Amino acid sequence: RTRLGADSDYGRFSEIISSLAVAEIPGASHMLHHEQPEAVAAVIGSFLRERRCLPGPDAQEFRAHAANPT
Q1: Which of 24, 39, 43, 59 supports an S-S bond with 55, CB 3.0-4.6 Å?
Q2: What's CA 50's distance to the chain center, in Å?
Q3: Which letter does DSSP use for residue 67 in this model?
Q4: Contact at 8 Å (CB) between 20 and 10?
Q5: Which of 59, 40, 41, 60 is nearest to 50 (CA)?
Q6: Is the whole model's pTM more than 0.70, yes or no?
Q7: 3-state DSSP call for residue 66?
């Protein structure tokens, strides 16, 4: 079993998880999804849009396909 190490050891994490993206939300602690749900949702949404998993304002062709998937 591989140990990742300290939470702030992003270099070690990125060796194991090639698609690692790190985002820090100021003022959030361990329960950040409860404390700052809007900020967490924005970070997750941005991550997914960057990988074209969610439509964004610049994803016109994605929205067109979603409207008519045939």
Answers
A1: 59
A2: 9
A3: H
A4: yes
A5: 59
A6: no
A7: helix
Rounded to a whole number of angstroms, the CA Rg of the chain reads: 16
Measure CA 10 to chain center. Answer: 15
Tens-place pLDDT, residues 8-59? 677 777 888 887 888 888 888 888 888 999 999 888 888 888 877 766 555 5
Identify whether the C-beta of residue 24 lies closer than 8 Å to the C-beta of residue 7: no
Query: Which candidate, 20, 48, 19, places its Cα nearest to that of 7?
Result: 20
Torsions phi, psi for 19 (to 5 deg): -100, 20
Give the whole-angstrom CA distance, residue 26 versus residue 30: 12
Scan for tokens 């700052």, then name that residue: 36
